[in-house]
Structures are given as C-alpha cells and as structure tokens.
Automatic annotation (TrEMBL):
Protein name: CbtB-domain containing protein
Pfam families, alphabetized: CbtB
The UniProt record lists the keyword Membrane: yes
Keywords (A to Z) from UniProt: Membrane, Transmembrane, Transmembrane helix
The keyword Transmembrane belongs to this UniProt entry's keyword annotation: yes
InterPro entries linked: CbtB_put (IPR012667)
Residue ranges of the TM segments: 28-47
Length: 77
C-alpha cells in the first residue's frame, strides 16, 4: 500500500504574492451609469408611482409594490 507524502514547510514551494487585476474605468463606467439609472427608476417605481407623477393608471402598481414601500420607509397612505 502506497502512502502519500505530506508536504512539510521546508519542502513547500514558494510563490509570488497575488497581483491585483486592474480594471480600466472606461470598462466599468457604462455599467455603473446603467445600474445607477436602473436604481433611480426602481426607486421612482416603488416610491412615487401612483402619486402625482404616475405613469400607469389604476392601483395595480401600488398594490404590487405596497410592501416594498413600507420596507423602504416610503409613506403610501
């Protein structure tokens, strides 16, 4: 029966420390702008829809996001 050798600190190989990956700003910026616009739309949709600036008529949107409004501390009634 063969036994596996257990590496000891003296037999372990040394490696260089990890180098952080550099990500150019021009690659991140479009995604950051997109996510910012999406977040602003979602905050509007949850917080202000069915108010004075309503895009959709009726109460369907209000009822759909009602609990989310309370979770995010938006007053709705």
């Amino acid at each position: 029966m063969a036994t596996a050798a257990v590496p000891t600190p003296s037999s372990a190989t040394t490696s260089a420390p990890p180098v952080p990956v550099r990500i150019p700003v021009r690659e991140v910026l479009p995604w950051a702008v997109f996510m910012g616009a999406l977040m602003l739309f979602l905050i509007y949709f949850v917080g202000a829809e069915q108010g004075a600036t309503a895009i959709f008529s009726g109460t369907g949107v209000h009822e759909f996001v009602h609990d989310g409004r309370h979770l995010l501390a938006f007053p709705c009634h």
